[in-house]
């Protein structure tokens, strides 16, 4: 199988570090809001990749995080304050909602679904390692990654310094912090302040009370569950910088093992009404709302009709078409009336998905099968995660 690796910028033959065992980490949600199509696109794309790797005979170990605590104020903490609930209650509520939405789409639950708040000791260990190696520095109880010590900082995103500043500003990274030696240095641990409001979480550490930075969380949790070096690390394209760039520096800096990740895979963004689907733009299409009108399989079809690496614009007409296609395939399966394999179809289907997980082409192939022989169609359809259990609709 070939797969597009964002690190090399090339299609590469997929070869895991350990023979038939594949480790995959996918950056998860910050739970303060509900699941929209953009989230579903990322997680269903990786769901299908995992299903396909299993189909090829790999033994896949899959971890995904929940950023229920981090160094930033403007997501969970501000929302919790507005709603007069604790950050924990808010995060648990939206995590449950996310799981309900994703399970409705027949999503594979990760082997390790790790909440950041329960792993702060791993983050502290990693930060200590970076301090010991003089790759990080302390200032007033906070700890920062010294990016000047990483000559290849930028090797994933390939951004020039001025572009790094621009993207960091868009990400609302704290560039003004006077404690940092360089504005782009990464916050690893943010110290609690004596007058800190009660709604802000605080954890013990050798550096003093505080909370972990967002970027160190994924380094620590991926290494905890999958090892110092992993095969595939995925996430939305907007996480490439600074999040994934920082993860590489932190993990490779602490362990000295290069590469931290063999294949970096990034999913495109979903746009709606001409802009990236996001809470701030107010252009969300929520999975839970769409499920009131369309079947889970129709949503899965819509998502897989776009290649994982490409950004796309959502239009309801495409969802209507996806529902029609799903009905067509499911009718053909009903009348095929036998669960048989079809070696020729399997070979063609495998050849398609072997080319950088070309799901749009794989769906076209399933549609073609409905017009010819539907023999073996059921196996191929369900291998992409479509469920033939009776829909509630
Ligand atoms: Zn992450």
TrEMBL record:
Keyword Ligase recorded: yes
Residue numbers covered by motif 'KMSKS' region: 276-280
Matching SUPFAM superfamilies: Nucleotidylyl transferase
Residues bound to ATP: 279
Gene3D superfamilies: HUPs
EC number: 6.1.1.16
Entry protein name: Cysteine--tRNA ligase
Species whose genome carries this gene: Candidatus Daviesbacteria bacterium RIFCSPHIGHO2_01_FULL_40_11
Gene that produces this protein: cysS
């Amino acid at each position: 199988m070939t797969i597009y690796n964002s690190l090399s910028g090339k299609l590469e033959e997929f070869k895991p570090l350990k023979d038939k065992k594949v480790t995959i980490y996918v950056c998860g949600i910050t739970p303060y809001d509900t699941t929209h199509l953009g989230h579903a696109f990322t997680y269903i794309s990786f769901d299908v990749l995992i299903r396909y790797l299993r189909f090829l005979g790999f033994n896949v170990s899959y971890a995904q995080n929940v950023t229920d605590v981090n160094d930033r104020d403007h997501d969970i903490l501000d929302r919790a304050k507005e709603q007069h609930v604790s950050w924990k209650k808010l995060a648990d509520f939206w995590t449950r909602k996310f799981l309900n939405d994703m399970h409705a789409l027949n999503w594979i639950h990760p082997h390790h679904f790790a909440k950041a708040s329960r792993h702060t000791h791993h983050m502290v260990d990693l930060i200590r390692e970076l301090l010991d190696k003089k790759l990080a520095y302390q200032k007033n109880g906070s700890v920062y990654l010294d990016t000047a010590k990483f000559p290849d900082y930028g090797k994933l995103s390939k951004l020039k310094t001025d572009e790094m500043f621009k993207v960091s500003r868009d990400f609302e990274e704290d560039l003004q912090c006077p404690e940092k030696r360089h504005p782009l240095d990464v916050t690893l641990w943010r110290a609690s302040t004596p007058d800190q409001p009660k709604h802000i979480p605080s954890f013990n550490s050798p550096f003093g009370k505080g909370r972990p930075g967002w970027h160190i969380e994924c380094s620590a949790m991926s290494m905890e569950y999958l090892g110092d070096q992993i095969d595939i690390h995925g996430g939305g394209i907007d996480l490439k910088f600074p999040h994934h760039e920082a993860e590489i520096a932190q993990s490779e800096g602490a362990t000295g093992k290069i590469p931290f990740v063999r294949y970096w895979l990034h999913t495109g963004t979903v746009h709606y009404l001409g802009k990236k689907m996001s809470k701030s733009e107010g252009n969300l299409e929520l999975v839970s709302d769409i499920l009131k009108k369309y079947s889970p399989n129709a949503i899965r079809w819509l998502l897989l009709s776009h290649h994982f690496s490409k950004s796309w614009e959502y239009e309801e007409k495409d969802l209507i078409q996806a529902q029609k296609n799903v009905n067509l395939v499911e009718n053909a399966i009903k009348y095929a009336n036998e669960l048989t394999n079809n070696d020729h179809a399997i070979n063609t289907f495998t050849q398609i998905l072997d080319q950088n997980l070309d799901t749009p082409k794989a769906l076209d192939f399933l549609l073609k099968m409905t017009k010819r022989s539907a023999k073996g169609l059921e196996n191929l359809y369900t291998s992409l995660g479509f469920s033939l259990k009776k829909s509630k609709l």
